[in-house]
Amino acid sequence: INKAKSVLKTELNENIYVTLTDHIQFTINRYYQGMQLKNDMLWHIKRMYPTEYHLGEEASSLIEKEFKIKLLEDESSFIALHIVSAQLNENITSVVNITKMVQDILSIVTYHFNIILNEDSIHYFRFLTHLKFFAQRISNKILYEDDNDDSLFDAIVNKYSDAYECATKIGAYIKNTQNRNVTNEELMYLTIHIKRMIMEDNKNERSSL
């Protein structure tokens, strides 16, 4: 936990001292019973929370060394979830829901534009960061309120119609899965982030030709 605080340069919710301790205890007990859990979110956690996952790997190594055991890589992702949970002040269930939402939204963008997103680009990183907070607001039933002045929203919709169409698909997904209406303010921010990311990908693609 101290290493995580140092690397992430942030305080963590004090509950992690209980939740992570309990988790490690159960992990060791399960190991001696011949049971190790698989994490269906492993791949997504690696992509969304690389720093936290690396911390999970270091924690797993410490546990293996201390108890002379060999854990699956899935354990690193479970520990990463506890770290993310303590960062966001959310319970594990909420973090899993947030992670799934973000990955589903990225898939919507990928299929809408029929492209492979450049995960090394700065605009992808900014979009991913925005999505994490967006999904957290959805999970907590908190959304940006609509501005009474729709002129900026209308201008963005008209200028970036392709990105807005993708954003409305995201809005429909949120309505269907979370039963939440996405405000025009939220759709506008999604549209801007999507457009910047797609423009950068198209620019890089032309440069490589």
User: Which percent band covers the strand fraction?
Assistant: under 5%
Low-confidence parts: none
User: Roughly what is the average pLDDT, rounded to an integer?
Assistant: 91
User: What characteristic shape results from the CA principal axes?
Assistant: elongated
N-to-C order of helices and strands: HHHHHHHHHH
Please describe the topology of this protein.
Elements lengths: L1 H7 L7 H17 L9 H7 L1 H18 L6 H15 L3 H22 L8 H18 L11 H9 L1 H18 L5 H25 L1
Helix pairs in contact: 2-5, 3-4, 4-5, 5-6, 6-7, 6-9, 7-10, 9-10
Write up what this structure looks like.
The chain has ten helices and no strands. Helix 4 packs across helix 5, helix 5 packs across helix 6 and helix 6 (92-113) crosses helix 7. It is mostly helical.
Write a short abstract of this structure.
The protein has 209 residues and is mainly α. The protein has ten helices and no strands. The radius of gyration is 20 Å and the shape is elongated.
What distinguishing features does this structure have?
0% strand; elongated; mainly alpha
